[in-house]
Specification:
mainly alpha, globular
Length: 266
């Protein structure tokens, strides 16, 4: 058993030390994955156990002003990340088929690495979505899909800047930040009240956009597994699995939600 433990430790050290991108060693939350894992575990406990207990005998908070400010900031933040990623994919700097990671310290390489880190950090900010649901006693919104999605994305996104800061790994953030720009713009309008909500008939199309995104991520991530591409195949396998997993989960959500006659705009 001791030899097995030492073997596992050797593999862990080889991955986390030898294969890491040293450019982000001093960046916040990059030195180890365990703080991110701890935050994700605490998030699940808070939104499924602690939060509902604390709100059990309390009136729901309105938070209308807070929600407007939060969704406005999230819309701008997502739009900025989309713009940063788009400058690689929509200008010819990056190939849509296969793009190796540039591990140099050139301005372009550092800029791609930076937006990868900001995308990872945005997954921490996204956790506030659920906290607002709990504070407003919208417990029906805290579904298994919602919790799985929000608790796993910080962990999955950590691997990008830690090992693959740019190149092929930037495609997911490119699409997802675009989708989030639309999504948070929708939530911003919904937070403005019934006088605006009556015009928000397009919520289900956001889910359709998300499903399209997952298909594109799945197909894009498959390419380095079959093409001669200087990109880590383990990273491609991770992103492929993620795209497939979320497509299945969001497909089930779409069927269960939009087959009903009444859909909440919130």
């Amino acid at each position: 058993m001791g030899d097995i433990g030492l073997g596992i430790l050797d593999v862990y050290n080889y991955i986390m030390v030898n294969l890491r991108d040293p450019r982000v060693d001093s960046w916040p939350l990059m030195s180890s994955i365990w703080p991110t894992v701890a935050v994700s575990v605490m998030y699940v406990y808070t939104v499924k156990v602690l939060g509902p207990q604390l709100m059990k005998d309390r009136e729901p908070y309105s938070l209308r002003g807070v929600m407007i400010i939060y969704n406005f900031i999230q819309t701008i933040f997502s739009a900025w990340m989309f713009k940063e990623c788009a400058r690689y994919y929509l200008t010819g700097r990056y190939s849509w088929l296969c793009e190796p990671v540039d591990y140099s310290n050139s301005p372009e390489a550092r800029r791609a690495l930076s937006v990868g880190w900001w995308y990872f950090f945005s997954k921490y900010v996204d956790l506030l979505d659920t906290m607002f649901f709990i504070a407003r006693k919208k417990f029906n919104q805290v579904s298994a899909l919602h919790v799985i999605h929000h608790s796993t994305l910080p962990i999955i996104s950590w691997w990008g800047p830690r090992f693959m800061g740019g190149g092929q790994a930037l495609f997911g953030p490119f699409l997802n930040s675009g989708v989030h720009t639309v999504m948070y713009a929708y939530y911003l309008l919904a937070a403005m009240g019934p006088e605006v909500q009556k015009y928000l008939w397009w919520k289900k199309y956001i889910t359709s956009l998300q499903l399209t995104q997952f298909v594109m991520v799945f197909v894009h991530s498959l390419q380095p597994l079959f093409l001669d591409c200087d990109f880590p195949r383990a990273g491609s396998a991770l992103f492929t699995f993620t795209g497939l997993q979320y497509f299945i989960l969001f497909s089930a959500f779409y069927k269960n939600t939009y087959n009903k006659k009444t859909v909440s705009v919130e």
